[in-house]
Design brief:
Layout: E1 4-6, E2 13-15, E3 19-24, E4 30-32, E5 41-45, H1 48-56, H2 59-64, H3 70-82
Antiparallel strand pairs: 1-2, 3-4, 3-5
The chain binds zinc ion (ZN).
């Protein structure tokens, strides 16, 4: 049985295996990691609804407790859109 995590966009819980994980980097950027490391991170469903919800909201910033630069944000969103499974 895998751990469950809460999606930052919709607030529903899901299997960790089915969620994308975002990690805040020390340099202020963002990256996607397969395995948890130290530091703030956020989980997100592989669904268009949740990815687009993240685009429009400040949830990511709140979840990671840091400002996300516009470039980083757009890069991450683009990446997330390629990982959507529906
Ligand atoms: Zn979600």
């Amino acid at each position: 049985m895998s751990a469950t995590r809460t999606c930052v966009a919709c607030g529903a819980r899901g299997s960790q295996d089915g969620l994308l994980r975002l990690q805040a980097c020390a340099d202020g950027g963002l990256e996607m990691v397969a395995r948890p490391r130290a530091g703030r991170s956020a989980y997100l469903h592989r669904r268009a609804e949740c990815v687009e919800g993240l685009v429009r909201s400040r949830l990511l910033r709140r979840s990671l407790r840091r400002d996300i630069g516009r470039d980083d944000r757009e890069r991450v969103i683009e990446y997330l859109r390629t990982r959507i499974v529906e």
